[in-house]
Amino acid sequence: MSALLLDIKDGIATITLNRPEVYNAFNDPLSYELQDALKQAEKDKSVRVIVLTGAGKAFSSGQDLKASMEGGKRNLSESLHKRYNPIIRAIRNMPKPVICRLNGVAAGAGCSLALACDVIIASEAATMIEIFVNIALVLDSGSSYFLPRTVGYHRAFELATKATKVTAQEALQIGLVNKVVPAADLDAAVQAEAAYYAAAPTKAIALMKKMLTKGMTDNLDTVLDYEAYCQEIAGNSEDNAEGINAFLEKRKPAFKGI
């Protein structure tokens, strides 16, 4: 891989978008390498949590417009189906938590990428902007799904149609991110979060990820039935037995993710 870095250690897979000279803008190689890295992290049984971040000053500035114009105008629908949508689906279908280490600007598809993650920990220097309207395009890569569910329709409409730049503190206030820390503390905060999930009951968390996504779209009766289905699976896991034994023995559970 040339456009990103993949490091796996202590149950944590760190994926770093590595085109800092263009603020980690997406070209074809980065798009396909990120798809591959997510597949590798999902298949690797030693990985319990994924951290997604960007090298340098930015998280991702979205599509590399210069690269997109090379060879003439491209089919944007085809580009989304082949390049971006598989990434968003991979993150949302990932049976492991995905933490966004939001180190700088997340713009356009980069903002969508951040919103697709399960937890977002932002540096005070980070910003988020749905910049599509500035070049007369519409939201893509899942932003029209995540944004209104996170901040409500009216705020989402404003952010989308005005390309309003949201600071890290503003993002925290409206619920776009989970936590904001000084830039110097970002690595420690992300490491602590990742370490928690690396030691957590992975199977139960994977089920809850599916349940919460389903809960945003399905009716109550469907969700109640799905809860019962998932609880039966969780209740037959080795981690459930370990959790009960640890409670009875008054000790900290040692979850294995199975």
From TrEMBL:
Q: Which Pfam families match?
A: ECH_1
Q: Would the keyword Isomerase turn up in this protein's UniProt record?
A: yes
One MF annotation (Gene Ontology) recorded for this entry: isomerase activity
Q: Which UniProt keywords apply?
A: Isomerase
SUPFAM superfamilies named in the record: ClpP/crotonase
Matching entries from InterPro entries are given as: ClpP/crotonase-like_dom_sf, Enoyl-CoA_hydra/iso, Enoyl-CoA_hydra_C
Q: Report the PANTHER family cross-referenced here.
A: EG:BACN32G11.4 PROTEIN (PTHR43459:SF1), ENOYL-COA HYDRATASE (PTHR43459)
The family this protein is said to belong to: Belongs to the enoyl-CoA hydratase/isomerase family.
What protein am I looking at? 2-(1,2-epoxy-1,2-dihydrophenyl)acetyl-CoA isomerase
Q: Which organism is it from?
A: Chitinophaga niastensis
